[in-house]
Design goal:
Elements: H1 5-22, H2 45-60, E1 67-71, E2 80-84, H3 92-109, H4 117-140, H5 157-170, H6 184-200, H7 202-209
Parallel strand pairs: 1-2
Length: about 220
Amino acid sequence: MVPARGFVHWLFEAWAWLQSAHGQPRRSIVAPCDEDFPVDLALQGADLGDDYFLFVCEHAGLSEWPLIAVPQNEDADDGFPVPYDLELLKSPAQLVTHFARGVGYYAVQASGVVPTVDEDDYLVDASTVFLGFGIFLANASGRPAEPWLRGRCAMAEHELAYALALFGILGEIPDRMIEPHLNANPRAFYRKAVKHLLRHHAHGLHRLQGRMPSGVGPYR
């Protein structure tokens, strides 16, 4: 199963817009493993949450931004707050997904262009995959997710897998670096997406790998 043609067109335009706003994305994938998140497990509560959040920001290349993880019902004096439930500490993958999507939201807002209401959540998902967290989002899309701002991931499971495949192809990331970390359904969708992109969208891939034409964007 691959996404509808309209979604694929939108995704390519959104990706071009993200590249124009933030430059080329990272050429490595963030995975749910100790190597990517060597947190200090002796920490507890908000201190442990802060440790995870620091690694999320580092992987996203946004360590210099005034991003701050804020436990629910607590106030942030300044910066860009990402509220979260301390219960998420029991599920590190969900915690990272939650943090990554929060960071992805601010990456969209910092572009200087305000998305339309209908596209806001979709663009947050695309931005979060663009920052390297597609594995986390694809795995989270098949189950209820903790809300952030207006809710859970907007993209469906096969759409997130398609966005992840686009990230992998453009970053020349081998499938062996992605597939072992995916759950069964998103792994199957990812494999189909890779074949579909290479077979039917070679021109679009080449355009994203080269110089971006002016005036592109995901907004209607």
